[in-house]
Amino acid sequence: MNKREPTDEPAVAGVILAAGTSSRYGGENKLLATLEGEPIVRHAARTLVHSSVDPVVVVLGHEADRVQAALEGLAVDPVVNEAYDTGQASSLRAGIEAVCDRGDVDAVLVALGDMPFVAPETIETLVSAYAAGAGEALAAAFDGDRGNPVVFDARFFDALTDVDGDIGGREIFLESDSSALIEVDDAGVRRDIDVPDDL
C-alpha cells in the first residue's frame, strides 16, 4: 500500500465491537439495556453511522440475533465472531478482516458497543487528526486520560489480526512510535457500561 500523503482525504472504516458476554453486568446483555428508550448498542452504532467513516462493521457474538435486531434500520454491516468467548482480540480480528473484504481503506476506527456516550464530533476529530498526519495510531483522550475510539492505520492491520485474548489493540497502541492521544472535549470517551449503575 502506498504511503498516504496528509493532504489526501483518507478512507476510514468503522468497526464496532459488540460481541462480548456482559459478564460483569449480571444476567442481562448490557448492550440491550436501554438508555433514553433505545438499546446502548444502537446509540454507539448511530454515532458511527452519522459520521464520515464508511463502511461501519458491527462484530456480533453473544446473543448475536438479539443484538443485530437492536440495530435494525441502521446502515451497518453485521459480522458474527463465532469465537467471541475467547476475548476481544478475536472480535477485533473479525472486524478488521471484514473491513478488508469490503475494499481498500487507509485506516479503521475501532469503537466499543458499550460506549453510548461518545459524541459524533469526536469521531470527526479523530478522522481529521489522522488525515492531518497526527499519527498512525490515535486514541481519543479526555483530561489527558486515554479512552475510545481508537484509529489504526492500515499498516497495523496484520498485527491487529494476530493478537490474542483480551488485549485487543491496546498493546499495539502503547508500543507504537507513531501513536498519539487526541484530546477531545467529550467525557463519553471514558464512559463505558460495565454494571447497571453505570447508566
UniProtKB/TrEMBL annotation:
Name the species this protein comes from: Natronorubrum sulfidifaciens JCM 14089
Record-linked Pfam families: NTP_transf_3 (PF12804)
State any single GO MF term.
Answer: nucleotidyltransferase activity
Protein name, entry field: Molybdopterin-guanine dinucleotide biosynthesis protein A
Residues of the MobA-like NTP transferase domain: 14-175
**Which InterPro entries does UniProt cross-reference here?**
MobA-like_NTP_Trfase, Nucleotide-diphossugar_trans
Query: Entry's CDD domains?
Result: GT_2_like_f
Q: The organism sits in which domain of life?
A: Archaea
Recorded hits in PANTHER family, A to Z, give: MOLYBDENUM COFACTOR CYTIDYLYLTRANSFERASE
